[in-house]
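During the no-cost extension, the postdoctoral fellow (Dr. R.K.) reprocessed legacy sequence entries with the updated structure-token encoder. One reprocessed record is reproduced below for audit purposes.
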Amino acid sequence: MQYRYTMISILLVDDDPDILEIIKLDLEDDPSFTVDTCGTSAAALKKAQTRWYDVIVTDWRMPVMNGTQLIQALRADGCKSRIILYSGHNISSDIRTALDSGADHIVHRGGDPDSEFAELRQKIRHSVDLQKEQVQR
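Re-encoded structure tokens follow.
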């Protein structure tokens, strides 16, 4: 069963402000998405503690705390948001660790932007659908 909602809240985490802005603008082309951004993992942890997000989308390579470490910290804090690791870095050796740490999906950046953004939007919607199905059980 597919669920559709009027608004899907997204927290986007990346240390590159230009990347944050590009992804935010693309996602907000969909009127059902609201997007907050953070430039550090520490800021993302604080926001996730004070506000519910349906989906958290995080880069992998960031200073101080990488995406996998952020996912581990979010899950240790009891965060139930769906988490998508969205990175342009080769993380093939870290994919299993990221999934085992609590990532729900991994989307690779670095190809055709239109295809990547379409895949990211699809994964966001799929994540929310899965979460709502679990709540219904």
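The chain has a mean pLDDT of 86. The first helix runs from residue 17 to 27. The remaining legacy entries will be reprocessed before the final report is submitted.
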